[in-house]
Design brief:
about 0% strand; Four Helix Bundle (Hemerythrin (Met), subunit A); 5 helices; mainly alpha; globular; about 130 residues
């Protein structure tokens, strides 16, 4: 049985929450920053895809947050506020997994986490997924 757009959006939202929880635990316990940042990026990616899925929009298999934002903003204009931050997190899923990015610090990882946690709240409110 094929699930509907709302079911897929809810699953993506829930999985994004798991990624944020993993990042939060990592930050609290000194996990490697590349791992923390990877989970931050994955949460952002899944949240944007949840917005698209909720509208039954197709989305590409990509980690590119700028592309996902551009696809999602027409139906979810509240996402515009994230255009200046989210795209830079794409590197956390791609380049950061294989190369060192010396510019990321604990403070930077915590700031990225805070942005994506706020994104989760905004998406959850917009989609009616927050209890």
């Amino acid at each position: 049985m094929r699930s509907g757009p709302a079911d897929l959006a809810r699953r993506l939202f829930r999985k994004a929450g798991n990624d944020l929880l993993a990042a939060e635990i990592g930050l609290a316990h000194g996990a490697p920053l590349d791992t923390v940042c990877f989970h931050v990026q994955q949460a952002a990616e899944k949240l944007l895809k949840a917005c698209l899925a909720a509208k039954d929009a197709e989305y590409p298999f990509t980690h590119e947050l700028r592309q996902l934002l551009e696809l999602a903003i027409p139906d979810s204009p509240f996402l515009q506020e994230f255009q200046s931050t989210l795209p830079e997190y794409t590197e956390f899923a791609v380049r950061f997994r294989y190369d060192e990015l010396p510019w990321i610090t604990g403070e930077g990882a915590r700031a990225a986490f805070a942005v994506v946690a706020r994104l989760r709240d905004e998406v959850g409110a917009a989609l009616g997924f927050l209890e």
